[in-house]
């Protein structure tokens, strides 16, 4: 048991100091939840911003102020942002980064 506890501590310590983003992210161990479009639509402002990309729901609230495109991220706050997300303005790194904000799946 002591070895297991130590291993968890080491992993936590390692990941605490190897984070490449200054952004607060959802915990990666959260279980996937299901949200309706109505659920997501309630999160439509700068201080509470969720978006839908390809039927997945992302809480990007902590990224709004850091978004290189400024308030463009708010254009589809609480709504589907798939088209804008896959636009030519985004570098390929956003495709890896977005998963850090995943909170669940869209249900119909």
Provide the fold topology.
Layout: H1 2-17, E1 33-35, H2 37-41, E2 44-45, E3 48-53, E4 56-59, H3 82-85, H4 93-97, E5 102-106
Parallel strand pairs: 1-5
Antiparallel strand pairs: 2-3, 3-4, 4-5
Keywords: Heme, Iron, Metal-binding, Signal
GO molecular function: heme binding; metal ion binding
Pfam family, one: Cyt-b5
Characterize the structure shown:
This protein is an alpha+beta fold and 108 residues long. It has a domain at 32-106: Roll (Flavocytochrome B2, Chain A, domain 1). Helices cover 28% and strands 19% of the residues. The protein has helices at 2-17, 37-41, 82-85, 93-97; strands at 33-35, 44-45, 48-53, 56-59, 102-106. The longest helix has 16 residues, at 2-17. The termini are far apart.
Short synopsis of the structure:
Residues 32-107 form the Cytochrome b5 heme-binding domain. The protein is α+β, with helices and mostly antiparallel strands and 108 residues long. It is 28% helix and 19% strand.
Extract low-pLDDT stretches. 1-29
If you compute it from the alpha carbons, what radius of gyration comes out, rounded to the nearest whole angstrom?
Answer: 16 Å
Distinct helical segment count: 4
How would you classify the helix and strand content by structural class? alpha+beta
- For the record, the CATH class of the domain at 32-106 is Alpha Beta
Which sequence of SSEs, written as H and E, runs from N to C?
Answer: HEHEEEHHE
Shape: globular
Helix content bin: 25-40%
Could you name the CATH homologous superfamily of the domain at 32-106?
A: Cytochrome b5-like heme/steroid binding domain
SS strand fraction: 15-25%
Mean pLDDT: 77
CATH architecture of the domain at 32-106: Roll
List how many beta strands DSSP finds.
Answer: 5
CATH topology of the domain at 32-106: Flavocytochrome B2, Chain A, domain 1
The main β sheet shows up as: 5 strands, mixed
Measure the end-to-end span.
45 Å
Oligomer designation: single chain
Strand order of the largest sheet: 1-5-4-3-2
Protein name: Cytochrome b5 heme-binding domain-containing protein
InterPro entries: Cyt_B5-like_heme/steroid-bd, Cyt_B5-like_heme/steroid_sf, Cyt_B5_heme-BS, Cytochrome_b5
GO molecular function: heme binding; metal ion binding
Family: Belongs to the cytochrome b5 family.
């Amino acid at each position: 048991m002591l070895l297991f506890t130590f291993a968890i501590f080491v992993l936590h310590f390692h990941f605490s100091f190897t984070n490449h983003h200054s952004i607060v992210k959802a915990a990666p161990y959260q279980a996937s939840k299901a949200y309706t479009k109505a659920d997501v639509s309630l999160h439509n402002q700068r201080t509470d911003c969720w978006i839908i990309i390809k039927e997945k729901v992302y809480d990007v609230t902590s990224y709004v102020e850091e978004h290189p495109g400024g308030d463009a991220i708010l254009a589809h706050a609480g709504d589907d942002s798939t088209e804008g997300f896959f636009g030519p303005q985004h570098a390929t790194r956003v495709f890896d980064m977005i998963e850090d904000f995943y909170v669940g799946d869209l249900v119909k």
